[in-house]
Amino acid sequence: MSSSTEWPLWEIFVRSRRGLSHTHAGSLHAPDAEMALRNARDLYTRRSEGVSLWVVPAAAITASSPDEKDSFFEPAGDKPYRHPTFYDIPEGVKHL
Amino acid sequence: MATRRTIESNEPNDRSGGSLRSRGTEMATAAAQKAAETEPGGAGSTAARAAEQQAAFDEAVAADERIEPRDWMPDAYRTSLIRQIAQHAHSEIIGMQPEANWITRAPSLRRKAILMAKAQDEAGHGLYLYSAAETLGVSRDELLDKLHSGRQKYSSIFNYPTLTWADVGAIGWLVDGAAITNQVPLCRCSYGPYARAMIRVCKEESFHQRQGYESLLALSRGTQAQHEMAQDAVNRWWWPSLMMFGPPDEESSHSEQSMTWKIKRHSNDELRQRFVDICVPQAESLGLTLPDPDLKWNEARGHHDFGPIDWTEFWDVLKGNGPCNDQRITQRRRAHEEGAWVREAAAAYATKQAGAPRADTAATAHGEATA
């Protein structure tokens, strides 16, 4: 029960069918990439949920920090003109 | 057989939440949090910041938003979640044992294939849940160690034996049925990774319940001896299934806080009543009876009344005196110990292939993510 052999963590991304992007499904531990793929197949596609898998070492992912939440995403907050609903278009104008 | 087993644990809150460490993406939260808390700035600003964080958390919970791993959360919330999710994960993998007991003796190839798929699902459910627990800053090894040393519990239901083939059906119908009743509301739990794991579990769980029901139905409509075997199994599993919802509301130590945090959405007694109401007509369709002379429809309440539950038995099994407590945990420990060489060999192979000194750093060689 020593922790010396705990396998690294992998994040698993599944493409559920052709034409869709890979989506994060969850994570698992595995000693290497090949085993991560095999384990991911058994864990996340037991019912044909996928046609392709990505396994990514969790340690290789860089994430934005929650402390940056406000300032990091703030620039988008005051730009409603980036959305189509910002604009008033007269009734009856079509295909717009 | 995913069972939510918060309430069953009468031990004091464990301190697993205390030893936080960084564990990859979602798991980087804890460490970042600690660092933020120890930044200089004087006692006043620290207190102000703490109040701000608490307010943001309360607001998110009140607004039915999900708390994610990298968000600030109260220590007690973290600890409570770790306890509940760990207990749930442990229940999944211990729950493989009573059913595995019948895999080699399943009456047909069809039933055997179904039972193997179900046992594999339980392992999968355990893994989803262990991953969810790990996002809170505990390691897999720590969780398994706590299971093996009895510091974290699993659902008491798995301390009952599976004496006949009909027990496999009764477990699917009643035990998985009770688990589903418990779990569906957990899909809306305030902690994101737990809620997401529960959505996966619930999708898969309904197969478990239906195969159990179908199997019991086949027995109930079979020979006299088969019918009696099915009835006997239901008689033995009914009351323990009702106990799965945990002690009555007034005795449930964790319930109220969990409701406030929106980890739980309904009380133990509420869910138990819902389960009884669901089961009564299902038993009729099976042609089997439920072993409770007090069970009857109460027009005024719009629910079924049912007889008193033997909570002495519940607490006794919980304390370790059930028929199979020792067997279950001994087998789990043995499986873990006997698997040690496989884990070590795989880690050694990975290290060798990568030419790196440690398994942790061996994971970079190929570019799979180009599919």
What does it look like?
The complex is a heterodimer of chains A (96) and B (371). Chain A is 18% helix and 21% strand. Chain A is built from 2 helices and 3 strands, in the order E-E-H-E-H. Chain A has helices at residues 33-44, 69-73, and strands spanning 9-15, 23-29, 52-57. With 96 residues, chain A is α+β, with helices and mostly antiparallel strands. In chain A, strand 1 (9-15) and strand 2 form a beta hairpin. Chain B is an all-alpha fold. Chain B is 61% helix and 2% strand. Chain B has 15 helices and 2 strands. The longest helix of chain B has 29 residues, at 192-220. Residues 1-39 and 359-371 of chain B have low confidence and may be disordered. Chains A and B meet through strand 1, strand 2, helix 1 and strand 3 of A and helix 1, helix 2, helix 6, helix 7 and helix 9 of B.
Count every beta strand of chain A, where a strand is a DSSP E run of 2 or more residues.
Answer: 3
Listing every helix as H and every strand as E from the N terminus to the C terminus, the arrangement of chain A reads EEHEH
The most extensive interface between chains reads: A-B, 42 and 52 residues
Task: Bin the helical content of chain A.
Answer: 10-25%
Strand tally of chain B, please?
2
What is the multimeric organization of the chains shown?
Answer: heterodimer
**Shape annotation of chain B:** globular
Strand order of the largest sheet of chain A: 2-1-3
Query: End-to-end span of chain B in angstroms?
Result: 35 Å
| Rg estimate of chain B, integer Å | 22 Å
Report the β-strand fraction of chain A as a percent range. Answer: 15-25%
For the largest sheet of chain B, list the strands in their spatial order.
Answer: 1-2
Protein name (chain A): 1,2-phenylacetyl-CoA epoxidase subunit B
Organism (chain A): Streptomyces alfalfae
Pfam family, one (chain A): PaaB
InterPro entries (chain A): PaaB, PaaB_sf
